[in-house]
Every structure is written in structure tokens, then in C-alpha cells.
Amino acid sequence: MASVTAKLVLTSPNVTTDDLSVTVENLLTVGVGGISTIDLTTAVNTGTARVVAVAANYTAPAYVYMRNKETGGVTINVEIPDGTGIAQLKAGEWMWIPWTGNGDIAVFASQANATLEWGIFTS
Prior knowledge:
Blueprint: E1 2-12, E2 20-30, E3 32-40, E4 50-53, E5 62-68, E6 76-79, E7 85-89, E8 94-99, E9 105-109, E10 114-122
């Protein structure tokens, strides 16, 4: 089995009355995974959302990474099969979520030809 380290660091000198300094790290044992980029050429609204993670292809636990590689005002929306939005990534933003694999994950952008970097790591 392979491993992936997920690490999140939050720091700020002024978001609260005390300095904020939190580091969370998790070593995950995975069997398969990887990261790639896709062009959301025609996925520009919820009706044309592109399925990037087909639940039937993965076993839980799985971990999903997504990053909006665009700049400016381009957003990428992440939704589940019934059209419910679970995230909106502004330009440069990213997310890392544990995924049960109970439903597909689809994405669409606010403009044509937006680029999404994404990956799944699973046992």
C-alpha cells in the first residue's frame, strides 16, 4: 500500500484577538490515486455539469482534491447527483474532502474552458 500525507496549515496574526496557528496532518494509507487536470469546455451550468468522480469506480474511504486553476472571476462549482452544490471554488481556491463514494461528484464553471486540477486517493 502507498501513502499520502494531507497537511493543512492555518495562520493569522489578526483574525482573532490571539494569533491563530493550527497545523493538522494526516498520513493516509491508499492503494490508488493521482492528480490530473481537465478542461471544463462546455460544463458551464448545473445542467451541463461534468461528472469527474463516478462513485461506482471507487471504494470508501476516498479522499478528493480539487483546485480551480483559473484567475480572475472564474468559479468552479462542485455538486452531487441531485444538483445540490457542495462547494464553490473561486480562482486559485482548493478543497480536500473525505468522500463516502455514495454518489457521483460533478463540476461546472462560470465560464467555458475553465481548468480544474483534481484527484482521488482511495484504498
